[in-house]
Amino acid sequence: MEADPDALARDSPAVRAVKDITFGSIAGMLSKVFEHPFDLTKVRLQAQVLHSSARFTGPIDCLSKTWSHEGLRGLYRGLPAPIVGAMAENASLFLVYGELQNVIRNLTGRPLAVDPTLPQLALAAAGAGMFTSFLLTPIELVKCKMQVQMLVAPSPTALPGPIGVLTTVVRETGLRGLWLGHTGTMIRETGGTAAWFTTKEFVARALLARRQPQPTHAARLEPWESAVSGACAGAMFNLALFPADTVKSAMQTEEDLRPRGARAPKTTFWATARRMYGLQGVRGLYAGCGITVARSVPSSAIIFLIYDGLCRYFE
Fold this sequence. Notes:
mainly alpha; globular
């Protein structure tokens, strides 16, 4: 459920912000360590959509080839950037989501003792997702480039780390280049976050109603209820607008896998989407969707289990 009204009244805005940032960062960091090999697989499958021939036949083939050719280190290639990204993403999402709920309460005259409606929560979540997308795009750019490095240069000895990738992008394309693929990130985060938080709250309310026919606002979820509602939310986040993420990943890795040259016109989100659809149809736009949904279910369960648990412990 949402924050306890007593806690909202007791804590100052600064304290609430620190809690949201800290709890969200911890939850995001731990979930990312679990899911990174599956995210790497997703990016590599998405990156090959525009290839004339595919390196991998599916997620299992990608995982097994990565393990056999690159080992455990290969499965966690590019991990520092997603760790930072997960901390920034979840801290920002929970912070902005909570503050936008308060804004909506003030605008509608809704007291703290009354839960926002699901449409109001969806609006707050969409705003949080849009804000977070601006922080996330540069981090995901670095992550995606690192995750396809071994597909270009088989020897890992000369591969740059996250700082090297970051400085190369800035040197070659300027600061603006760090937001390559931002349209896809913004679409995914805005719609996906609305689906994420709304699904979590909907399932959480249903579970509480099953246990307490007339649950109060301050009613608390059991740990397993936090995990189940979080798992459902994770699936919905990725199913909502997955093609936007596919196009974003293809854009962010194209210069590494299929260099177009300095004089080539800059690609756009919609042009890339049309090319991908023309080559592989709807199937290409959903490349890596299966493994992404499969890993997002336990990953999102971990996030809400940890976040809700920390909120209960530090009330």
